[in-house]
Amino acid sequence: MKKRILNLTLAVCASSIFLLLTSCASAPKGPDPRIGQMQGQINDLQKSNTDKDATVKQLQDQIAADETTIKQLQAGNTEVSNLQKDIEAKKAEILQLQAHAKTSDDQVAATSARVNQIQAELEGLKQRSAAKDAELTSLNQKLAALTKTNADLAANVDSLKSGTTKTQAEYVAQIDHLNKDKVDLQDKISALEKERDTLAIAALADQKDLDARVAQLKSTFSQEIARGDLEIRRFRNILIVSVKDSVVFDPDSPKLRQESLALLTKLAIVFKADPNRIVRVEGNTAVALSSAEAMKLYPTSWQLGAARAANVVQYLQEKCSMDPLQLVATSLGEFRPRADNSTEAGKAKNRRVDFILVAKQLYDVDQLQAVTQ
Question: Whole domain around residue 188: which residue ranges?
């Protein structure tokens, strides 16, 4: 650009000089006004060249600045690309951590559920222990009062000797009676302390036994649990084994399926290994029967549940040699649903056979009577 302007300027100057020389050769001697005009034009051109040189310099500086900016942007693009790669790596790491966190959360949830269960059992024992402690405190207070009364009466024996024989004998008899009451109270306190210790030991042993029973059941029926055919739950000292009705019975029928007999036999082996627990077999159904023919025999779902529970108990007793006194058959019909009976999925979950394992001393009426006496 600068070179073109300079060439143009030189051309204009050459033309002007040629004209000037031509004029000078033909015109008379003397100052020619055109020379001043030409000089002014030359000055204007030089000034224009100077301005254009400044403009060119500004443009060159701007180009240099733009080149610097371009280099910075290129470097920034490289940094952005590196940052994007780092972000992708972080996202992958986050997904791995989230997957690990979910596994950890499941483990924590299972552990928390177990801790809550143990805490509930401990709270129950603490409440019973607190009740026993309160009773012991009350008895100790009575014993202290009787001891004081005994001491007061003993101190007054000498003064009573001067009274009538009848009054003195009465006080001596009262002292003897109080001494006997004192011994009885001490015996009762000892018995209560032993009972409290026994209850604590029994609760701990029962808890360990149930843990072992749950582990045995989960190991024995791992395949059934994986298929969703069988579920094991525990509520404090009660163990619940739930089996889908479709595994044991045909629809709307109390007759045992041939395929279910092996499962019932395996359950019986586990139940017989713990003869100190009652097995309550509960028949649970959905809201209504779907077969008109079945309704003729079992007008209500409660009756169908009862027939199913009775057939299971009969099989466990007759074919698996379980003690009849360990078995109880009952029906809850549709009255204890575990899911919404308005959906087919809910009805399928509600149709089940529950095996409830309860300690004999909490179920046997005769033993309960002995405990309350």
Answer: 115-210
Q: How many residues does the chain have?
A: 373
User: What's the domain count of the chain?
Assistant: 3
What is the rounded distance in angstroms from the CA atom of residue 24 to the CA atom of residue 26? 6
* Burial label, 306 (beta-carbon count in 10 A; 0-12, 13-18, 19+): buried
Q: Report whether 38 contacts 9 (CB < 8 A).
A: no
Whether residues 135 and 69 share a domain: the answer is: no
Handedness of CA 249, 250, 255, 258 (dihedral sign): negative
Name beta bridge partners: 233.
240
Q: Read off the pLDDT of residues 227-282 as tens digits, 9 standing for 90 and up.
A: 999 999 998 889 999 999 999 999 889 999 999 999 999 999 999 999 999 999 99
Residues of the chain with pLDDT under 70: 1-32, 76, 80, 97, 99-115, 118-119, 121-122, 154-168, 171, 195-206, 288-290, 364-373
Same domain, 229 and 368: yes
Q: Answer yes or no: do 17 and 44 share one domain.
A: yes
Residues 127 and 241 in one domain: no
Q: Are 330 and 282 in contact (CB under 8 A)?
A: yes
Q: What is the pLDDT of residue 133?
A: 76
Residues 130 and 55 in one domain: no
pLDDT (tens digit, 9 = 90+) per residue, 82-122?
A: 878 877 887 877 787 676 656 546 655 665 666 577 667 66
Quick one: 195 and 282 in the same domain? no
Q: Are residues 206 and 229 in the same domain?
A: no
Pairwise CA distance, residues 154 & 171, whole Å: 9
